[in-house]
Amino acid sequence: MDILKVSSRSNPNAVAGTISALMKSDNEVEIQAVGAGAINQTVKSIAIARGYLAPTGLDIVCIPAFTNVDIDGVERTAIKFIIETK
Amino acid sequence: MDILKVSSRSNPNAVAGTISALMKSDNEVEIQAVGAGAINQTVKSIAIARGYLAPTGLDIVCIPAFTNVDIDGVERTAIKFIIETK
Fold first, then answer.
1. pLDDT band at residue B1 under the 50/70/90 scheme
2. Are A8 and A35 within 8 A, CB to CB?
3. If you ran DSSP here, which 8-state letter would residue A27 be given?
4. Is A54 an interface residue toward B (CB < 8 Å)?
């Protein structure tokens, strides 16, 4: 599965475009976000991507889960969002 | 549908407990969150609630969307999370 990494500085419209493209080609995407700012941008991106995909008949939902990621040798808790079609 | 309001100071475990109880009784919950901190707590709560509900056979997903809420007479953009079973 493709893994997208979103930061607090990611542009939600750009991330939504990537989510849409990957959903159309692969039907599943995983997004990783560390920290409140990144999680906020991810959620907005998913809401926007729903609008991009709805006219094509794809109704996406997300499944949030905890995961650990290694950042500069330090293990941190991240949120992964698995995006699927309904 | 029940509407839960989550803030940046909400306890994710407590919110997860409420989500679980409402999903068991009503099979659908809406959560409203304003701001990155509140959205972060909401996402963590949903991930925790998935763990509470999985043993009962309920596999929940969330649908994020934009909405407007009135806070002290000022209209602000909020995120609503619709929680459904898969």
1. confident
2. yes
3. S
4. no
What's the pTM value of the predicted model, to 2 decimals?
0.96
Position A2 scores a pLDDT of 83
Contacts of B5 (CB under 8 A, 6+ apart): B31, B32, B33
Bridge partners for B31 per DSSP: B4, B81
Beta bridge partners of residue A62, listed in sequence order: A83, B62
First to last CA, chain B: 17
Q: In the block, which residue shows the tokens 């959205």?
A: B39
Which of B8, B41, B43, B53 would you mutate first to test chain A, the one with the most A CBs within 10 A?
B43
d(Cα B83, Cα B5) in Å, to the nearest integer? 13
